[in-house]
Amino acid sequence: METTLKGQVALVTGGTKGIGKAIADKLSAKGAQVIVTARTAPESNTNGHHFIAADLTVPEHTEVITKEILEKYRRIDIIVNNAGANLSPGGGFNTLSDEDWYKDWELNFLSVVRINKALLPIMLEQKSGSIINISTGAAKQPIWEMTMSYSSAKAALNAYSKALASELGSKGIRVNVVSPGVVKTPLMMDFIENIATSSNITVDKAFQVVMDKVGVPLGRMAEPEEIANIVAFLVSSEAKYVTGTNYSVDGGASPTV
Ligand SMILES: NC(=O)c1ccc[n+]([C@@H]2O[C@H](COP(=O)([O-])OP(=O)(O)OC[C@H]3O[C@@H](n4cnc5c(N)ncnc54)[C@H](OP(=O)(O)O)[C@@H]3O)[C@@H](O)[C@H]2O)c1
């Protein structure tokens, strides 16, 4: 089975750090022309990714991304909606303001809807394409004191992705979700440091609190590359009969079948 992505154009949002960078590097290594977006340009860009500066919470920036991709490549084969973050403070329902809820939903849900809506006409014209939406295990297993609004937004992303897969299957476009558990990235390290500061405990202790809370049978966090491997499989022709799924890559953390 041919697994090269040569000749394919791939967009990875948030492709400058953490999971997104690992995905961008992996798709690039498999031969794709990779476009990465983020608010800040990466310090080094050794893999020749095409960088577009964009804040996905600003609707007009989606137009900037679409215009640049269309003008330069005239096609899009793979969209990995990876940019996302838990933007709200912990503490449960009473600590969350309307603004906190909007911020989490804007980045983790609406921005994905916008990117897909802007680029799908190109995929529909091509009659082919593969979309991966990066969710989280916390969408199915929310931690009330840490992830209430973030989990809710990502759960909406899961439902939207399933609906989109059903709508687009007959048009040659596959849509899948990848749900990481805990992954060693700058985002996760910030999250742990914030817990340490707000709970007045050491970073090591905060790390243990997170690991105990999530409960990871494999006993460690994932490396970003371990998420990228699944994404690379799902966008490849080896997975051409796979759509509408939600792959947990969580070291066994999900407690349900
Ligand atoms: N790390 C984990 O344990 C974990 C677990 C489950 C799910 N996830 C999900 O995996 C995805 C990646 O997480 P990560 O841990 O790799 O995050 P990360 O290390 O913080 O990287 C996030 C990337 O997204 C970009 N980004 C952030 N906000 C943005 C915005 N408003 N507009 C455009 N780009 C933005 C960042 O660049 P700039 O800051 O320069 O914009 C960066 O490139 C997210 O969707 C997250 O919810 C992560």
From TrEMBL:
GO MF annotations, alphabetized: oxidoreductase activity, acting on the CH-OH group of donors, NAD or NADP as acceptor
Any one Pfam family match given in the protein's UniProt record, by short name: adh_short_C2
UniProt KW keywords: Oxidoreductase
Domain of life: Bacteria
SUPFAM superfamilies membership: NAD(P)-binding Rossmann-fold domains
Similarity comment: family membership: Belongs to the short-chain dehydrogenases/reductases (SDR) family.
Name of the featured protein: Short-chain dehydrogenase
Organism the protein comes from: Flavobacterium hercynium
